[in-house]
Write a structure and sequence with these properties.
The chain has helices at 2-33, 297-301, and strands at 39-40, 45-46, 59-61, 64-65, 82-86, 102-103, 114-115, 121-123, 135-138, 141-148, 154-155, 158-159, 163-164, 175-176, 179-186, 197-204, 212-220, 231-237, 245-251, 254-257, 272-279, 282-287, 290-295, 308-316, 334-344. It has 361 residues and is mainly beta. The protein has a 17-stranded mixed sheet that branches. The chain is globular.
């Protein structure tokens, strides 16, 4: 009986080894023959490296390891205080080939484009056709553009609508979709979602015109459904030719404008730092390192346990304001430049003020 048991165990071990060898072969073969997809970005394509499941793989973007859900600050200025960043030395856009810093749409990498949620513009993605040069990276900065609708765009082979009813402004009926813009949101698969922290953009909006609608903001992460309307709008321009810009908190079906809907009249054409310090007991907003608004109590506590991602977009023609629509004088394209986006676990003590990068560069 003992000899039979030993013989049986030997057979089991041999079979297990054979299965492991076969499984390893087919896994290797599937990775070896899988083609690397590419996505059109500007006058060509951005071809991501092959998908890897090795956490020690080379970085696929500033501040994250490709194939890992854990951010690493190794490549970030200001590390280790900075726990995630994009300094835009390269364009780190997620695609069907793998996850990177940014999703090209809140609807994921397969989105061909969709109507704007609160503007008379089309949300472009790199999968739309023909290719547009709306997002580019050069000289360490990201440029996000909105352009007039050329009239020949399609999504999934279907022409985009020339007119539409926008969900946030149904009472206004059908209006022309006269601009093409887009939204980038951090990819939670590469560490781009947080509960609490200090978050900062350095950006400028050098070209102004009626109808312009750029925004730097945070919103509920795409991988969760709770806290559905959690939103911090750090800087938005509602079609008013560059000024004023606004800051707003959205929570529990409510909207709280920190400027009383008057807006802030300070400059947006030059480089400025826009930050939010989100902690369990407060939400504080900063411009150039100086606090200008704070929310505490029940409003701040509502966000406890929320999971939020970072978003940037350039749309046009905010649907609720008929006086903020583009006209013939509006430049084409409109655009915003972003020098960096950074996440900190906590706002650093004695953080420098001013418009310059606090970590140099």
């Amino acid at each position: 009986m003992r000899r039979q048991k030993i013989h049986h165990r030997a057979v089991v071990i041999i079979v297990a080894v054979l299965f492991a060898i076969v499984g390893t072969y087919f896994t290797w073969r599937s990775l070896a023959v899988a083609p690397a997809a590419s996505i059109e970005v500007e006058n060509g394509s951005l071809t991501p490296p092959a998908v890897t499941i090795n956490d020690s793989a080379a970085s696929a973007g500033k501040g994250v390891r490709f194939g890992s859900t854990t951010p690493t600050p190794t490549g970030c200025k200001g590390a280790p205080a900075v726990i995630w960043c994009d300094d835009f030395d390269t364009f780190s856009l997620s695609s069907t080939s793998g996850h990177r810093n940014w999703l090209p749409s809140e609807q994921g990498v397969n989105d061909n484009g969709h109507l704007g949620g609160g503007s008379y513009s089309w949300e472009w993605t790199p999968k739309g056709t023909p290719s547009l040069s709306l997002w580019t990276v050069a000289n360490g900065a990201l440029t996000m553009k909105a352009v007039r609708n050329p009239g020949n765009l399609t999504h999934g082979g279907t022409p985009i609508p020339n007119k539409a009813v926008i969900g946030a402004c149904r009472d206004k009926g059908e209006r022309p979709i006269s601009w093409i813009g887009g939204t980038m949101t951090t990819d939670p698969a590469t560490g781009g979602a947080w509960t609490y922290g200090y978050f900062e953009f350095r950006a400028r909006v050098p070209v102004h015109g009626k109808g312009m609608f750029p925004a730097l903001w945070m919103y509920r992460s795409v991988d969760v459904s709770h806290h559905a309307d959690a939103e911090f709008d750090l800087m938005e321009i509602f079609g008013k030719n560059g000024q004023p810009w606004s800051t707003t908190v959205h929570y529990s079906g409510q909207r709280d404008s920190t400027d009383g809907d008057r807006g802030y009249g300070s400059d947006t054409a030059g480089w400025h730092r826009y930050g939010v310090d989100w902690q369990a007991d407060h939400i504080a907003f900063f411009r150039d390192g100086v606090e200008y608004a704070r929310r505490t109590g029940g409003e701040a506590q509502w966000f406890n346990g929320a999971r939020m991602g970072i978003r940037m977009d350039y749309a046009a023609n905010p649907c609720w304001d008929d006086g903020a629509q583009s006209d013939g004088s509006t430049p084409n394209p409109l655009y915003m430049e972003v020098d960096y986006v950074r996440a900190y676990k906590n706002k650093p003590a004695n953080f420098p003020t001013g418009t310059n990068d606090p970590h140099g560069g």
